[in-house]
Amino acid sequence: MVLGDPANSQALRLAARMLEIAGESGATLDTLFLYHKGAYAALNPHQDSPLIRQLAALVTSTGLDCVVCRTALARAGAEGLPLLAPFRLGGLADWLGAVERADRVLRFGAPRA
After folding, report:
1. Nearest Cα to 33, choosing from 11, 10, 55, 65?
2. Residue 113 within any structural domain of the chain
3. For residue 1, is it within any domain?
4. What pLDDT, in 10s, does the model give residues 67-76?
5. 4-20 per-position pLDDT tens digit
6. Residue 23 belongs to some domain of the structure
7. Does residue 83 fall inside a structural domain?
8. Rounded mean pLDDT of 76-95?
9. What average pLDDT does the structure give for the chain?
10. Domain housing 44
11. How far is residue 79's CA from residue 72's CA, in Å, rounded to a whole number?
12. Which pLDDT value is given to residue 49?
């Protein structure tokens, strides 16, 4: 779960790097869930951004699911905006399913008001 605002936090970059290392080590990756202000990272991403390319490569090589919380986007006033790959819109059911499947859950960043 990524909570940190991409404008003020390295949470998504750190999460992506940790996922990359875990995937290279043979771990099964399931879901990257962007919640709270972490959801802002899915707004207006540049497809040529190294971070977006890194996430897209993880999706391709490991089957990672990059889910952006619908409620977090609604709170940001961004409900209904299209999401570019590798992100997809989701919600609590996606998060709970990922937690049930996982043997480890990591949280990156801290929610700020």
Report:
1. 65
2. no
3. no
4. 999 999 999 8
5. 998 899 999 999 999 99
6. yes
7. yes
8. 89
9. 91
10. 11-101
11. 9
12. 85
The answer to whether 90 and 69 have CB atoms below 8 angstroms apart is yes
Cβ(109)–Cβ(4) under 8 Å?
A: yes
- Dump pLDDT digits (tens) for 49-60: 898 889 999 999
The answer for residues whose C-beta is within 8 angstroms of residue 43's C-beta and 6 or more apart is: 73, 76, 78, 81
The amino acid that residue 28 corresponds to is: T
Q: Within 10 Å of residue 17's Cβ, how many Cβ atoms?
A: 13
What is d(CA 69, CA 2) in angstroms, rounded to the nearest whole number? 11
Q: Which residue has the tokens 């290279």?
A: 24
Q: Domain total for the chain?
A: 1
CATH of the domain at 44: 3.40.1260.10
DSSP structure string for the chain: -B-S-TTT--HHHHHHHHHHHHHHTTPPP-EEEE-GGGGGGGSS--TT-HHHHHHHHHHHHH--EEEEEHHHHHHTT-TT----TTEEEE-HHHHHHHHHH-S----BS----
